[in-house]
Amino acid sequence: MTATQELHSHELPQKERMIQETAAERLERVGAAAYRIRHHALNMGEVQGQGYVGQALGAADMLATAYSDQLRFRADDPEWDARDRFLLSTGHYAIGHYAALAEAGTIPVAELETYGSDDSRLPMSGMSTYTPGMEISGGSLGHGLPIAVGMALGLRYQDSNARVYNFLSDGELDEGSTWEAAMGAHHHQLGNLTAMVDINALQADGKTDTVLRTEPVTEKWEAFGWYTQRVDGNDVGSLLAAFDNAAAQAAAVGRPSVILCDTKVGRGVPLLEEREKAHFMRIEEHEWQTCREQLTAGYEGKDAR
Ligand SMILES: Cc1ncc(C[n+]2csc(CCOP(=O)(O)OP(=O)(O)O)c2C)c(N)n1
Ligand SMILES: [Mg+2]
User: Fold this and answer.
1) Which CATH architecture has domain 3-11+21-300?
2) Could you give phi then psi for residue 87, rounded to 5 degrees?
């Protein structure tokens, strides 16, 4: 295998690949992937004129860290037995997930423009039967972690080294099923399970602390027996360090890991970062180009906010 092929092969996570890369180069690579994910998400949002764009922008760094650095997968064989499973339980975040799958090479970039249209493989809410690389049909909040627990247990019974990642939102911390699953994961010592929570402090009905106060979140996960880290979810360096720590802890039998990621809705596009009613954004026709320009200006200026 040539060095270039190795770089684009994700059969092993970055740490286990024989890629010679400095920490700065790694940061640059994952940061560039996050920028492209944001760019794709804006283009997809424009097709419908509205949507869950703010979440995709907020979670892009988490998705880039997962897909361009941590996950084991074959882009052209989404059902490869040994793949790590990435379960999106927040179905409405599908726009960000599709962007990440395009970045990973599982979905053609050109197909992204079909997002949300009739007969598209990319419906607005993630469906496993429609989309390659979409492991579960999410949307009914609080189902992802219970499914992840079952999968992690099943993979252990099969002596598989594959790991299970569940991407969930802070709104899913309102769901009792999430906490039942958290308890089950600890009980079964699912060291092959990692939860990544997008704490954007927002839900459909308003700010999380006004809908249902979930804090102190860190202490809750710790009390449930999980290896718990909390990071700035828009800082790729912190995300890489946290995912590396989680990977170093991973074992067939051991503590499950959770990475709590504080993110900003609309991150990278100042026009959208301050928008009201950010759960489902309406963006005017003339604003999309401004959004793209702001994103690129921030990225090229290596906006250090
Ligand atoms: C079990 C369940 N209850 C309610 C809903 C309706 N719902 C859809 S999105 C959403 C907000 C959940 O919070 P979060 O995912 O944190 O929202 P965001 O950060 O995207 O605004 C709700 C309540 C649902 N999909 N599933
Ligand atoms: Mg939220």
Assistant:
1) 3-Layer(aba) Sandwich (3.40)
2) -105, 115
